[in-house]
Amino acid sequence: MNKIKALILVFTLFFIMGYAQAESIWFSPLTAIPEDPTGARSLVLEVAPYGDAIEVTATGPVAEGDNKWVVLGLTTQANKAIKGVQVCYEVITASPDSTYISQVRLSTMTTPDFSTVIHDDATDLTSTSPTCYTSNTAKRKPKVGGTTTLSLKMVFGSASDKITIGGVKLIY
Q1: Between the ranges 40-54, 94-108, 134-148, where is the mean pLDDT highest?
Q2: Which of 38, 164, 42, 44 is nearest to 100 (CA)?
């Protein structure tokens, strides 16, 4: 009888540990598009020379207040709590800290006339080496209800600068 209880306890612990591990889904950035509330096309997105990444450039300097975004639709599981999002990127610039991703935002939408921001992180992503940044959601984990979009706000100090975006991971 004690052996059965011990086996049930071991099985239960393994099940709980496996269930408690964070789930994640990786996304390619290749379907991302530029978004500009003014209608101007100041951001240019191209497939990176080595494949599954995109290079973002600007037609001229882009300031923080210009609201130039790269947006990527994410396929999410309904009613799952989002714990964070990871963005893998690299900034290529001659003037460090002049070109960067200034905001990581997640939003949801059902009807086309209204969207809700469920996560906003204003940490400047400035790495000039390939890296991945994890943006964890607040204590209140937002649940997905509708479509989910990742928006990355871009700042460019020069038209010769580039931001390369690689994999994007949604963490449940």
Answers
A1: 94-108
A2: 164
Residue 88 and residue 102 in contact, taking contact as beta carbons nearer than 8 Å:
no
| Residue 31 Cα distances to 84, 101, 107, 129, 154, angstroms | 20, 18, 17, 23, 17
What distances in angstroms separate CA 35 from CA 12, 15, 41, 121, 166, one per listed residue? 48, 43, 8, 18, 18
Buried b (16+ CB within 10 A) or exposed e, 69-81: bbebebebeeeee
Domains of the chain: 23-171 (2.60.120.260)
Task: Locate 21 and state its tokens.
Answer: 């591990």
Question: Rounded to whole angstroms, how far apart are CA atoms 106 and 151?
Answer: 6
Six token digits for residue 172? 């449940």
SS3 of residue 140 by DSSP: coil
Neighbour-count burial for 120-154, b at 16+ CB within 10 Å, e otherwise = ebeeebbeeeeeebebebeeeebebeeebbbbbbb
- Per-residue model confidence as pLDDT tens digits over 91-116: 999 998 999 999 999 998 888 888 88
CA dihedral 10, 12, 13, 19 (to 10 degrees): 140
Q: Is 81 helix (H, G, I), strand (E, B) or coil?
A: strand
